[in-house]
Amino acid sequence: MLTSSLQGNSPLVDLKVMLPTRDLVTVKVARNSSCLEVFRLVANAAGIKGEANEFFALFEIVEHNFGKAPCQVCPSGGLV
Fold first, then answer.
1. Which of 52, 11, 3 is nearest to 42 (CA)?
2. 26-72, pLDDT tens digit by residue?
3. Structural domain tally of the chain?
4. Which residue, 6, 43, 54, 68, could crosslink 48 as a Cys pair with Cβ 3.0–4.6 Å?
């Protein structure tokens, strides 16, 4: 999930990463960070060190309906 925040002039986003253990790690990164920078931040936050880095990768999962509440019709006919 990406949420915008401003710190000085650098737009930052909160990036949540699910680990193989299903634990979540959250890192704040600049919106224009490279994949390698993001990987290093996530690996550090997850405690993945040294040669173990070679056995991990980041994959993006796109959830098209994430954050969108479905429209529901009330008995009165209005939308919620």
1. 52
2. 999 998 888 889 999 999 999 988 888 888 888 877 766 655 555 55
3. 1
4. 43
